[in-house]
Amino acid sequence: MNKSDLLQFIEKSADECVALQKLLTSHKALAPENGGDGEWEKCSGLEQFLRAHGITNLERFDAPDPRALHGRRPNLIATIPGLANDGAVWAIAHMDVVPVGNMADWKTDPWTVVQKDGKLFGRGVEDNQQGLCSAFAAAWAFVANGIQPERTIKLLFAADEEVGSKYGMIWLLQKHPELFNKNDFFVIPDGGDPLGKTIEVAEKNVLWIQFTVSGKQCHGSRPDEGLNACLAANRLSVALYEGLHKKFDAKDDLFEPNTCTFEPTKRDANVAGVNIIPGSDVFCFDCRILPRYKNEEVLEEIKKIVAQEEKVSGVKVSFGLLQNAQSKATDKNAPVVKALSSAIKEAHGIDAKTIGIGGGTVAAELRNLGYDCVVWSSLDETAHMPNEYCVISNMTRDAKTLALLFGIE
Questions:
Q1: pLDDT tens-digit profile of 99-156?
Q2: CB-based contact 354:346 (threshold 8 Å)
Q3: pLDDT range class, residue 86, cuts 50, 70, 90
Q4: Gap between the Cα atoms of 31 and 45, Å rounded
Q5: Torsion-angle region of 118 (φ positive above 0: left; ψ -120 to 50: alpha; else: beta)
Q6: Which residues on neighbouring strands pair with residue 135, listed in sequence order?
Q7: CA-based angle 132:136:137, to the nearest 5?
């Protein structure tokens, strides 16, 4: 079989990708932080699917987590040995998904894939099952046709990406560093654009912060007898939003948006009645910071803003870090960037360009340890949205690019 035949085989594998999507979506792989019990059932189903398709060189690396089903968070690696010994090509996807959010916003059952107009709808079908299925389709093409790739293929299906990778990529890098080599290529199909022309080489730093404002609860008609934690939290939220944007105002056109972002997001319920002034209020900020700044600089400014609010209102404010990730960049001329650009050009006639993103992926953990890696795929960016979907043809489209990256004569 030649290269053209292999790519034609991939083109015809869309039905298998759809079948895998339906299997994966049926398992609610939510982290314990999001009300789930982890990825165990999803990983077990995936493992059976891979074995049924001849991908049998599988290894499990399970991270202990007493909150999860069976007390473990699974990480699965599939290997297809290559002809050369100069490094593997990793395609890294994650198995966990985010909660569905407001069910009223969904037009279909988020845990049952619906196929319509060339798209698949369901929670996780794009983030990150599309990339997972593309990696499967590319690897399966070699296995099903008895072809040995030029470079060893490594498919990593990781746990825990959505809430920080403590039991996924971080755990693997800490506990099993022998798995990875500086000569390896790392491709994370977990972000991109509709044409697959952008190769992400840098990410903004991430800070997720939870603030707890403590005042004094009282009757709604007697605010003079209490300290309104809700009011102070509102004022603090605005002060943080305005103060941080003013202080850290640099622009970098590698990213879109090209600035730091500091956004108030999740807020916990405080009191049960309208006529009760809250004595406690809890809210969160999602901060995406240009790499030129250090997260420590931002935290120092946050302390100043918090101290000012405490002085003005008399409340006490504490805060904790839910995520703290500082990210290095991959050189735009790194071998993996050049190799992927070449594969994209050969597969689709597109001249790729390098970009940075605000979203966090497992690439940050790899880059911080000196591994060059890229984030790339062809997608419509429906991650975390209601009615999340993936375009079916994108799975085979990206599989062709990955197959060329794996290497065939």
A1: 999 999 999 999 999 999 999 999 999 999 999 999 999 999 999 999 999 999 999 9
A2: no
A3: confident
A4: 17
A5: left
A6: none
A7: 120
Q: How far from the centroid of its chain's Cα atoms is residue 43's Cα?
A: 17
Q: What is the CA radius of gyration of the chain?
A: 23
Q: Is the peptide bond before 275 cis (omega within 30 degrees of 0)?
A: no
Q: How far is CA 361 from CA 97, 103, 225, in A?
A: 13, 26, 47
The residue from 16, 39, 62, 96 that is catalytic is 96
Contact between 126 and 383 (Cβ < 8 Å): yes
Tell which residue, 170, 273, 192, 260, has the closest CA to residue 230: 273
Q: Are 121 and 390 in contact (CB under 8 A)?
A: no
Instruction: Mark residue 196 as left, alpha or beta (left: phi above 0; alpha: psi -120 to 50; beta: remaining).
Output: left
15 is catalytic: no
Phi, psi of 109 (to 5 degrees): -70, 120
**Helix or strand or coil: residue 245?**
helix
Q: Is 96 marked active-site?
A: yes
pLDDT digits (tens, 9 = 90+) for 129-143: 999 999 999 999 999
Choosing from 161, 184, 203, 365, which is the catalytic residue?
161
Three-state SS at 64: strand
Q: Tell me the C-alpha to C-alpha distance, in Å, between residue 58 and each of 80, 156, 318.
A: 9, 10, 45
CB 90 within 8 A of CB 185: yes
pLDDT at 57: 98
Query: In the sheet that 280-289 helps form, which strands lie side by side, from edge to edge?
Result: 261-267, 280-289, 205-214, 316-325
Strands 114-116 and 185-188: unpaired
Among 84, 401, 355, residue whose Cα is nearest residue 202: 355
Segment 230-250, tens digit of pLDDT: 999 999 999 999 999 999 999
pTM value is: 0.84
Q: How many beta carbons lie within 10 A of that of residue 60, not counting itself?
A: 12
* Coil/strand/helix, residue 308: helix
Position of tokens 């894939």? 113
Contact (Cβ atoms closer than 8 angstroms) between residue 376 and residue 189: yes
Give me the half-sphere count of Cα atoms (radius 13 Å) on the Cβ side of residue 70.
11
Q: For residue 79, what is the DSSP state?
A: E
